[in-house]
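Colleagues,

Please find the record for the three-part complex below.
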Amino acid sequence: MRIACPYCGERSLDEFIYSGDATVRRPDASAPTASEDYVKYVYERTNPPGMHRELWYHAAGCHAWLVVSRDISTHAISSVELAKDVALANNQAMKESA
Amino acid sequence: MANMLKPTSAFSHLDPLSTPSLSVAPREDLTMASFAAGKDQVQAVMATIKSAYGVDLPRRPARVSGKGIAFVWAGPDQWLAVAERGANRDMERELKSLLSAMASVVDQSDGRVVVRVSGPLSRQVLAKGIPIDLHPRAFGANAAAITHASHIGVIMWQLEDASTFELAMFRSYADSFAHWLIETAEATLPATA
Amino acid sequence: MARTKEAPRRDPLQPQRLVDRGIVDHRRTIEFTFDGVTYKGHPGDTVASALLANGVMLAGRSFKYHRPRGILSAGSEEPSALLELRDGARREPNTKATTAELFDGLVAKSQNRWPSLDFDVMSINSLLSKVFVAGFYYKTFMWPAALWEKLYEPAIRRAAGLGRASDAADPDVYEKTTAHTDVLIIGGGPAGLMAALAAAQSGKRVILVDEQAALGGRAIDDGSIIDGRPAREWVRSVEAELASRPDVTILRRTTVFGTYDGGTYGALERVNDHVAVPQKHQPRQRLWRIVAKRAVLATGATERPIVFGDNDRPGVMLAGAVRTYINRFGVVPGDRVVVFANNDYAVSTVTDLINAGANVVAIVDSRPKPSEAISRIASSAGTKLLSGAVVTRALGKKRVTGALIRTQSGAEVRLFCDLIAVSGGWNPNIQLSTHVGGKPLWNDDLLCFLPGSLPPGMLLAGAVAGNFSLPKALGSGADAGATAVANGTKSVSIPVPKAAEDSVRIAPLWRVEDHSGKAFVDFQNDVTDTDVELAEREGFRAVEHLKRYTTLGMATDQGRTANVNALAIMADITGRTIPQTGMTLARPPYVPVAVGALAGHHRGKSFKPTRLPPSYKWAKEQGAVCVETGLWLRPSYFPRPGEKDWLDTVKREVNTVRNAVGICDVSTLGKVDVQGKDAAAFLERVYMNNLKSLAIGKARYGGMLREDGILFDDGTVARFAENQYFITTTTANAVRALQHMEYCAQWLWPELDVQIISATEQWAQYAVAGPKSRELLRKIVDPEFDISDAGFPYLQVGEITVCGGVKARLFRLSFSGERAYEIGVPARYGDALMRQLWEAGREFGACAYGTEALGVMRIEKGHISGPELNGTTTPRDVGLGGMVSKTKDFVGRTLGTRPGIVDPERPQLIGFRPVDRSVRLRSGAHFLAKGANPTAANDEGYMTSVAYSPSNGHWIGLGFLKHGPERVGEIVRAYDPVRGGDTLVEVVKPVFVDPEGARVRG
């Protein structure tokens, strides 16, 4: 598999480390439901075939954390974004909805 | 008081290789520092470097060189400054004084060691350990990349010259890297009778 | 197509060699031995072609029944002719005679025979074949299980093994390389060459890979005429044009063995397999990782045998292979030939045989109505044509002597011959299209599987796509090459050379019904048609089950001549169609790949890189014994003359530190520079303990948790300036800790202004520990810096200079429990600083100490390390519960308060000493209450770290025990059934030296 790092370009899988689901967000620890929220955040995952959004780390390259959209049945990658940009956009969206 | 400590090379057995088709030599004469721009400080850092050295810092993997100094992209909003140490140049001190409020500056003069590989066979040799595309159209003058060579992390760049590369790796890997490089060079150089 | 007037001339020294045919170098003669007999051949031969040139057809014995076997094919699909090549350390078993290139002095031996190939004792198995059916091993050797290792396995291995590998280390070197290309063309036959020509017009990068030493593929094998000239001349002109283009690379003797995701292909180049010994430093083989934007699969097709009685006899050969030996190598494999086919490939086979001077005894065509092409060749050659007939059995044992034929009317005819050329049709070599999940499609006209869905970027050309005739192969190659570089825009077309159209008509025939003798489906695994029937009867009908039950399709040929026949027979028996029966998908590798090639440079000591700490050279000079910790090679202890073992040395080192001073290289600890306006806020969220109150110039112990509340790593956090921190991690976790912090900075809290840069290797860092450490350092630290206890108290950090102006960092930290410092200098001064410390330490009786003494002293102090930070423990488990902040959010906070994490029943860290002080403790022992039965239910915890404590004069241990801190003074049982340990131990506080902690402060 090859992943196109937004900075470094397309690199082989062996430069990257997979690090799980990119759709979950670290919950507010001060919320009254924090205990259950964290159990869901850390442990509960579905694993359907098809498209996933995943966190990858460009360990042997620029050390950027990436959000990779990948079809886990075919390994076809449809987008690679910088995790930092995704996280900042999420923060912005949460602010606006609040 | 005179400095009583003599620097030693990290390479315990890298005999410089010099043939018409391939040369390999450690560069022990460098002072290096990495610097990472603080939040919202990228433009300020770039402007400061531009006014001090007359170069535009690259935002993507690349190298730029100014007078007596080169900057290599070393990660998002992060660069490695490389210069010859000469009498007493200290890149960390130099950049700290320029960038104090806008970037974190960390001395890398000792943390990383640099090997220069040059000559017409250099691409062929390096391809035996480096997985990225080294074709001149993909990796040409002043190209830079962070990748790995024979399982050892490297920041590498090409000088203006068409077949001269420098590779920087963490110091403790120096001997392992040299062992791979020399073995590979021997296997690539034309066979001797 | 007329019979040639006179037979072509033969070489008197090689009875089956035609002197003016093929592309071997007839001017040079080389010698080789097979089973001790010397033969002659030519450069360009394979071992198989050279054996055949000398009239040798018997090449080995089969795997299970020890049946005599010959040479079936002329390529990497060969299931039968497997030889042992070379001698000594280079001896290699199971090499295919059909792909091994001949070189002068080659030594080849047959396999699986004893005492000789001609007379093999184990061929008795043939008579017992009713016993050795499919599933025999599964059924026979199931019980008693105790006999497996002692009796069955060695006996089976001796009886059934093929070749013998050398026991010596492989003396050759191997290398790996990566290539990137716009187009990869797999196969250098007519289609691949046209694809390369077309793609090369664009000026883009092209890599053409071909398995053989010479390009041309079946155009050479078939002796084709292209553009009015012999194929070899056309190939030469194409090669010349490709060679003139700087961005075209041709890899000969190279097999693409695997397709991987992202347009990545694995290929093996046999750089020096065709010479006796590679030149100095030159690799034997080279492994290529090829990354291609587009790939053209031009891998051709492999001919199928037909399954009939005794179809494995030496002298039964694929028709295409017969043509290859004639046209490529100038060798006639037999003089009296029966051609048996279900398709029109028989036509050109007959033509070639006659032109080579062989006598074609008969054409046995299973189709009741002869095709026009077959009728024409039979009449023009004057050869007997038996339509609607089949060969039911090959006659002869070690060489075919005849063929038993059943005619259309059912009559039995016996023909004398020494070669049966068989064609059951062609299987496209689609394997590389299925490695990443492509599904093959059955084609009812061509009677073969064609590639179905293709991996992204792959195109097809030639026979692999069912273009079996030469003009179609050439045309499809040109199209594929042009399309591969077209990039969605217009493609460049190049003229397609002219060639004659051959008929490829075929009618199904997989096996001959009512045959006598054994009829083999898979020659390499000795699987017969009755084994397939047995599998069906026993319920193994799915192809995947069939494969595993009979071992069909396994081994070095991957069933390339067997698989389709097997599933066609299974389809027949079960009354299903072939697509309904299914097809096993191929996995890499397409051909065997030596592990040495996969390893390349990375074997032996170079298996992985080694990291050397700054004082390594000095330590070796001192006689240090080193230990691998991760990639690092660290001094473990420094033996001195007169010390009888490592324990002696470690005792001395510990005593020296506790009573005087010792020096230890701790540079391997991970070091990370954390800066930025939000550096403090960031570290507060990463560490479990309070860091807000950490003053500039101070250091503090810190622990990191995982989000699930489990301890992840520990180390120190030092603050050098308002917004500048310098943290250390454990050696083992240095990389992961940096990754974790970058995760936190980029993904969890991207709004924070923090920069994280690894500084592990910038600093050579030495622990200087012991009551005399300050006095020693006073001789190193430049005089303007105050290191008195008032000026530089415990947990102080500072930037100083040493040895006359070298910049340095000093940390007053202690892992040993003694007054101690860590001093760091830029790594290039590391070696020199160690030598200075050593000189300065002489008057204090200083020693150097390694990881062993380091470990002993931390156990004596109850400090946790790897065995306690084992991925299952919490801060409370290790006695750090009180350090966890309750006033801030940090990674691991919420789940760190889960009931399971704070459960008071969780074993907690405590110390142990043996009741009998002379007893040695062992880590891994489990704790049981005195008198309790050793059951899992009674398990109360386990010992994590043990050491002989020189300070106490007996063994001590750390471990986790239920309610441990409340049980000090109690005696429990340390139970270690694996190593036979069962010791009573006393529970003690986990501090064995200086419990008040007075020494660290001086």
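Chain A has two helices and six strands.

Comments are welcome before we finalize the supplementary table.
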